[in-house]
Design a protein that fits this description.
150 residues, 3-stranded antiparallel sheet, mainly alpha
Length: 150
């Protein structure tokens, strides 16, 4: 069977299948690069999100990262145990727990971020600015279509 959905040759795969395969490969590569710095992609996302602003609730962080709250809980627990973030009660509503990055978390993020970005940029091909615009537009259209379908 060639040229169909299950085509094993990337040169002949339908575009949607190639997109999926490339996404899986980039995700795997990103996980390996981030893991070399003692973090998971989700943990790096948590620290990055918290570094950009005020303390947020678990639910807000989950929505921001596009990760289920249950998936986020062990990541937050591990980062808290490592001293990279702290949980604190919201003074306006004591039922709400907010997450805040600590100084240790900022240092850990800073130590990993530059190296990860450099490794990913050097390890992945960089399209021309014109091609990047076309690729970005296509990927955004795919995300929109898939999000509507869900």
């Amino acid at each position: 069977m060639t040229g169909g959905f299950f085509e094993p040759d990337p040169q002949l795969m339908p575009l949607h299948r190639l997109l999926s395969r490339a996404g899986q490969a980039v995700s795997r590569y990103s996980r390996e690069v981030v893991a070399a710095h003692g973090l998971t992609v989700t943990a790096m996302g948590v620290l990055g999100a918290l570094a950009d602003g005020e303390a947020v609730s678990h639910r807000e962080l989950s929505g921001y990262l596009g990760v289920a709250p249950a998936t986020l809980t062990p990541v937050v627990d591990a980062l808290e145990a490592a001293g990279a973030l702290a949980r604190e009660r919201d003074p306006a509503d004591r039922r709400v727990v907010r997450l805040r990055i600590t100084e240790h978390g900022r240092l850990r993020l800073a130590g990993a971020h530059g190296a990860v970005v450099t490794t990913l940029r050097s390890g992945l091909p960089q399209p021309s600015p014109r091609d990047a615009e076309v690729i970005r537009a296509y990927l955004l259209a795919v995300l929109t279509a898939v999000t509507r379908a869900e």
